[in-house]
């Protein structure tokens, strides 16, 4: 079933007139938002309306309110007030907000009309704050102005509502892992699940530091975006779904997943200590660099794990010295050499599921474990930097994010070059060789390509003694 049509203009105009009728404080604008505004509604979708009122009365133009044409009184959405909330027991200044719901007839069926009345100035101010439903991501949500007084039309006649991303809430993330540990220690299964869900909602605000920017327009879109972040810890997607309660799991599995998320995110955001300091202060940023945070997380994860917990990622992450960035060889070293499995026929299809364009996937000639060699060079000089392995999904992520992404055969996981070291590879082009079994990845290399700290992995010269080479 396709999207439902927007309510006809007469329907929206009628509701605009109803909501303006007798309003006190006066209405200065009415906006359509939600699924109908972004043209993604079904026949079951609500019609979401923002009614913007002028509490201060500076834009009050009573001539614009057509009282005689209104079939219902605007008082239907007028909030109950407490004496002393506003002048002479009137509506509270600035804090004015109310919600009302209606069931209206439309094309022979009932439609839920959801009305949110807000002070115009606080509504405008909210556009400068993160959306609480967006998992910390920035928002660009389509809206449609139905009606406005001239004084405010220019300011609120917007094609989209833009709200900024949340700040990287690393401190809150750590504190919430403490709540998971506390609930686990107290044998409080509901407390574990509630805290783990809160923890999962905080993760994207921190991971956003290491990922390409993405904007969202709905809660469902936000969830999809955060689950698909290309720079993320091993097992991130499954752990997020577990913690959010969107995948079944025991309390022990949920608590361990929460610990994995936090301990996996910390190494990825270590290069962004300055951004952390700007939000949470210098001490947390220094702890991120000097190893104190790793030791504290080790304390929490011991409490979180408990008896009978699942396997943990044990790849070493050395603690950096204060004031220095580090390269973590375990997570950032290219793997070269013969395929892990030899003597078997070539795999006709990728081993792991992938979103790679089928036309590209059909041209790949993979190793038995579903991999293709990737030769990486500096795009402008042609200098060969390293050789690594890609499967179909690593190639898809490389092509769609612009960040070089590879498959680790030893750890059986994806890794993004520079995610831990800061030595990023910004992809300029990718070419497939004539046989389909190798890729040439042209990048703009930041810093060293080799995990040893050298610019290129090919820094060891071997003696060539053939006569033709010396003549």
UniProtKB/TrEMBL annotation:
Q: Which reaction does it catalyse?
A: 1-(5-phospho-beta-D-ribosyl)-5'-AMP + H2O = 1-(5-phospho-beta-D-ribosyl)-5-[(5-phospho-beta-D-ribosylamino)methylideneamino]imidazole-4-carboxamide
Where it mainly occurs, coarsely classed, is cytoplasm
Which InterPro entries did the record assign? Ant(4')-IIb_substrate-bd (IPR040517), NT_sf (IPR043519), PRA-CH (IPR026660), PRib_AMP_CycHydrolase_dom (IPR002496), PRib_AMP_CycHydrolase_sf (IPR038019)
Q: Which residues bind Zn(2+)?
A: 434, 450, 457
| Compositionally skewed regions (Basic and acidic residues) per UniProt | 59-69
The entry describes its oligomerization and partners as:
Homodimer.
Q: Which NCBIfam families match?
A: PRK00051.1
Q: Which family does it belong to?
A: Belongs to the PRA-CH family.
Q: What does this protein do?
A: Catalyzes the hydrolysis of the adenine ring of phosphoribosyl-AMP.
Q: Spell out the protein name for this chain.
A: Phosphoribosyl-AMP cyclohydrolase
- What's the source species' lineage? Bacteria, Bacillati, Actinomycetota, Actinomycetes, Micromonosporales
């Amino acid at each position: 079933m396709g999207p439902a049509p927007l309510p006809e203009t007469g329907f929206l105009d009628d509701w605009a007139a109803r909501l303006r009728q007798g309003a006190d404080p006066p209405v200065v604008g009415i906006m359509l938002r939600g699924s109908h505004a972004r043209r993604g509604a079904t026949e079951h979708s609500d019609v979401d309306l923002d009614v913007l009122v002028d509490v201060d009365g500076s834009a009050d133009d009573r001539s614009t309110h057509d009282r005689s044409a209104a079939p219902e009184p605007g008082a239907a959405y007028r909030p109950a007030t407490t004496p002393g909330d506003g002048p002479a027991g009137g509506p509270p200044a600035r804090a004015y907000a109310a919600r009302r719901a209606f069931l209206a007839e439309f094309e022979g069926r009932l439609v839920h009309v959801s009305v949110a009345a807000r002070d115009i100035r606080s509504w405008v101010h909210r556009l400068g704050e993160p959306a609480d439903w967006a998992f910390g991501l920035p928002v660009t949500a389509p809206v449609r102005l139905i009606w406005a007084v001239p004084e405010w039309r220019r300011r609120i006649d917007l094609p989209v509502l833009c709200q900024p991303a949340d700040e990287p809430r690393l401190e809150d993330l750590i504190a919430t892992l403490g709540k998971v540990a506390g609930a686990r220690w107290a044998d409080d299964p509901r407390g574990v699940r509630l805290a783990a869900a809160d923890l999962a909602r905080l993760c994207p605000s921190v991971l956003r530091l290491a990922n390409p920017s993405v904007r969202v327009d709905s809660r469902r879109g936000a969830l999809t975006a955060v689950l698909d972040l290309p720079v993320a810890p091993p097992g991130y997607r499954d752990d997020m779904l577990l913690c959010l309660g969107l995948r079944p799991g025991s309390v022990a599995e949920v608590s361990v997943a929460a610990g994995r998320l936090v301990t996996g995110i910390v190494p990825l955001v270590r290069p962004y200590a300055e951004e952390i300091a700007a939000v949470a202060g210098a001490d947390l940023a220094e702890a991120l660099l000097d190893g104190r945070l790793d030791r504290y997380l080790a304390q929490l994860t011991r409490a979180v794990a408990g008896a009978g917990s699942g396997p943990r990622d044990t790849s070493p992450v050395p603690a950096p010295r204060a004031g220095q960035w580090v390269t973590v060889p375990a997570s950032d070293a290219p793997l070269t050499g013969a395929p892990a499995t030899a003597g078997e026929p070539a795999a006709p299809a990728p081993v792991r599921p992938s979103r790679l364009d089928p036309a590209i996937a059909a041209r790949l000639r993979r190793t038995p474990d579903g991999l293709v060699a990737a030769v990486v060079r500096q795009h402008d000089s042609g200098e060969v930097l390293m050789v690594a392995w890609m499967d179909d999904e690593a190639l898809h992520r490389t092509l769609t994010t612009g960040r070089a992404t590879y498959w680790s055969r030893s750890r059986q996981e994806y890794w993004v070059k520079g995610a831990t070291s800061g030595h990023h590879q910004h992809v300029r082009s990718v070419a497939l060789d004539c046989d389909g079994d190798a890729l040439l990845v042209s990048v703009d290399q930041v810093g060293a390509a080799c995990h040893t700290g050298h610019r290129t992995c090919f820094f060891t010269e071997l003696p060539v003694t053939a006569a033709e080479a010396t003549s």
